[in-house]
């Protein structure tokens, strides 16, 4: 039964409970404000009353989201978990991406801030926020409670080749700046053999405060605004326990924070009449919103949807007779009995390892002939065309210049209109150089054979053969559609939000999630997003209350 929203008002309404939304909601609530966190999806992890689980987890407080060995179930059965309105994979459940992702967790390289972000957001500015996140979520590179690693044949064989080529083993989060010719074990937010992260920390402290309210199964349709001043949020009940109606912020001083993800936040802004004219016209002519959309004389013209980016993923695949594949998908319904018992009784064994048995993670930098240093992260997993295969994905990240664009359909689904992959020739050069180098390194590993690329294929021919679309290159690390910057997008700049994460042309509307990142990070971005959210909370709390206009 859906509830109609009450007459209660909130100092802050945060839309979306992902890597950005949970930390910012917690910090705003910690400062004594009344906070409503609105999440479109259902509960996920057991601690917040999630229910999605295989039969062998019945009777425990665990769901599929808690057990690391089941994390790849999102690919086998995304129903009711993955976002249905984005065209690419995303988690639309409590926790957003942090409930469904592989939990890889990297302290950012200083350049992730210094190269990408504007004044006030450089690595020295982010030190305190980084310390805050890592004190709550330390991360872990041994997930089994008995302190052991399981089925590491792939890791061992590949790292022999890396050692011989002079790569250095590091504990990655002890040395975030050592990201060239280094490798390490994957580091995860897994604690006590279960998914950890913001759902187990920030959301727990927020939920314990009387002035904090969480509504799941509730979609924020758009913000209600008069000119640049937002008075509330229009809600739609998604299912079951959700809420509908309009919920208001505290008159005069209340604020709305949009943290609905790179596609979701852009969509909320577009439905609220904030964005480029061509996309606002699509909303205006849509059968769903058209007749009730804010009138065009109130539109705020900003480049929402531009600057879309993601890691460029390119998979290589090797074969080694020693590699052993584990059936993590099979473990969903029929886990090996001893592995199930080891997990349930002592949180040890294979099922504490994130599927499909990740690692090593390898870093490399390419000095581009355009003078830009581009960062590559290689991420290995035991999966491929044979039972003894390992796929190693090359992520080209920091330094990429290619950008794409997101748009919206009349059905109000967002989609990748222009994919951001390899549109810049030097980005492509870096991908080719990186793969060429890694082929040389791995070819020296005894008994290793190549599946992709084949040994007769040139690296350039191989790279050209992989389509530059999200299904072939996508890494699920979308950023950029509501970019932060001092160059106001209303007057020809690229930025949608200012240095306080406030939407230009408004006085109490903010965006705090991956969408504000100007460029992609070196590694998987969720730690950087949480750090950004800590920083945003500091800056928002330091602002004077809006003067109602
Ligand atoms: C399969 C997968 C694997 C990944 N693996 C990793 C990894 O190992 N490590 C890593 O660092 N990153 C990983 N990522 C990326 C990472 O999870 C995301 O970058 C991160 O979660 C983005 O944070 P966010 O706050 O911007 O958005 P999200 O975490 O996506 O959160 C947005 C939330 O807003 C909600 N929402 C959307 N629209 C509305 C609305 N209108 N009203 C109410 N709620 C709404 C969504 O349901 C969602 O819960 C992975 C992502 C995926 C999909």
Structural shape: globular
How many β-strand stretches? Answer: 22
Q: How do the strands line up in the largest sheet?
A: 4-5-16-17-18-15-21
| Assembly of the depicted chains | single chain
The unreliable regions are: none
Overall pLDDT, averaged? 97
Q: What Rg, in angstroms, do the CA atoms define?
A: 23 Å
Provide the list of bound ligands, each named once.
flavin-adenine dinucleotide
- First and last CA, distance: 37 Å
Structural category is: alpha/beta
Main sheet, how many strands, which sense, barrel?
7 strands, mixed
Give the fraction of residues assigned to helices. 10-25%
Share of residues in strands: 15-25%
Number of helices: 15
Produce a short descriptive summary.
The chain has 15 helices and 22 strands. The chain is an alpha/beta fold.
Characterization of the model:
The protein is an alpha/beta fold. 25% of the residues lie in helices and 19% in strands. The protein is built from 15 helices and 22 strands. The chain has helices at 21-30, 73-76, 97-100, 110-114, 123-136, 153-164, 202-207, 261-271, 277-284, 328-333, 337-346, 425-442, 459-465, 470-473, 526-542, and strands at 3-4, 12-15, 35-38, 168-169, 182-184, 190-191, 194-195, 212-215, 218-226, 229-237, 243-248, 255-258, 274-275, 300-301, 312-319, 358-367, 373-381, 389-396, 405-408, 414-418, 449-452, 509-511. The strands form six sheets. The chain has a seven-stranded mixed beta sheet with strand order 4-5-16-17-18-15-21. It is globular and about 70 Å long. Bound molecules: flavin-adenine dinucleotide. The site of flavin-adenine dinucleotide has 40 residues, from helix 3, strand 9, helix 8 and helix 15. InterPro entries: FAD-dep_OxRdtase_2_FAD-bd, FAD/NAD-bd_sf, GMC_Oxidoreductase_CD, GMC_OxRdtase, GMC_OxRdtase_N, GMC_OxRtase_C. Belongs to the GMC oxidoreductase family. Pfam families: FAD_binding_2, GMC_oxred_C, GMC_oxred_N.
């Amino acid at each position: 039964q859906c509830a109609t929203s009450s007459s209660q008002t909130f100092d802050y309404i945060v839309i979306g409970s992902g890597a950005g939304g949970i930390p910012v909601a917690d910090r705003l609530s910690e400062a004594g404000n009344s906070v409503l966190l609105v999440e479109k999806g259902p509960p996920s992890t057991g601690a917040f009353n999630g229910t999605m689980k295989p039969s062998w987890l019945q009777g425990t407080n665990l769901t599929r989201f808690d057990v690391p060995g089941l994390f790849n179930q999102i690919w086998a059965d995304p129903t009711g978990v993955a976002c249905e309105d984005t065209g690419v994979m995303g988690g639309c459940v409590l926790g957003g991406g942090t409930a469904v992702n592989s939990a890889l967790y990297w302290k950012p390289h200083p350049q992730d801030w210094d190269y990408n972000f504007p004044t006030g957001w450089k690595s020295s500015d982010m030190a305190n926020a980084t310390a805050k996140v890592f004190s709550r979520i330390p991360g872990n590179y041994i997930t089994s409670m008995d302190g052991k690693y399981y089925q590491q044949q792939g890791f061992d064989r590949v790292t022999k080749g890396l050692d011989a080529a002079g790569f250095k083993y590091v504990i990655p989060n002890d040395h975030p700046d050592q990201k060239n010719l280094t490798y390490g074990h994957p580091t995860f937010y897994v604690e006590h053999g279960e998914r950890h992260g913001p759902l187990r920390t920030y959301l727990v402290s927020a939920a314990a405060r009387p002035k904090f309210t969480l509504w799941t199964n509730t979609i924020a349709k758009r913000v209600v605004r008069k000119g640049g001043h937002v008075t509330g949020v229009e809600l739609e009940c998604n299912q079951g326990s959700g809420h509908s109606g309009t919920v208001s912020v505290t008159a005069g001083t209340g604020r709305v924070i949009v943290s609905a993800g790179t596609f979701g936040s852009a969509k909320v802004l577009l439905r609220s009449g904030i964005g480029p004219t061509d996309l606002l016209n699509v909303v205006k002519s849509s059968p769903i919103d058209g007749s009730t959309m804010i009138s065009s004389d109130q539109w705020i013209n900003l480049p929402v949807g531009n600057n879309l980016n993601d890691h460029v993923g390119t998979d290589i695949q090797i074969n080694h007779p020693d590699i052993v594949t584990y059936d993590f998908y099979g473990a969903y319904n029929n886990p090996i009995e001893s592995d199930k018992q080891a997990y349930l009784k002592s949180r040890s064994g294979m099922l504490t390892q994130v599927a499909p048995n990740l690692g090593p993670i390898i870093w490399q930098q390419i000095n581009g002939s355009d003078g830009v240093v581009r960062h590559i992260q290689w991420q290995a997993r035991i999966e491929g065309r044979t039972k003894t295969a390992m796929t190693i994905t090359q992520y080209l990240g920091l330094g990429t210049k290619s950008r794409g664009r997101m748009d919206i359909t009349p059905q109000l689904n967002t989609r990748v209109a222009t994919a951001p992959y390899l549109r810049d020739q030097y980005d492509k050069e870096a991908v080719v150089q990186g793969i060429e180098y890694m082929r040389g390194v791995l070819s020296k590993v005894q008994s290793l054979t190549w599946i992709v690329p084949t040994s007769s294929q040139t690296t350039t021919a191989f790279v050209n053969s992989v389509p530059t679309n999200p299904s072939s290159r996508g890494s699920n690390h979308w950023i950029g559609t509501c970019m932060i910057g001092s160059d106001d997008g209303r007057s020809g700049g690229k930025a949608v939000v200012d240095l306080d994460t406030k939407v230009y042309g408004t006085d109490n509307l903010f965006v705090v999630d991956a969408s504000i990142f100007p460029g992609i990070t070196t590694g998987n971005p969720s730690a950087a997003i949480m750090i950004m959210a800590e920083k945003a909370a500091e800056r928002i709390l330091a602002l004077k209350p809006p003067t109602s206009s």
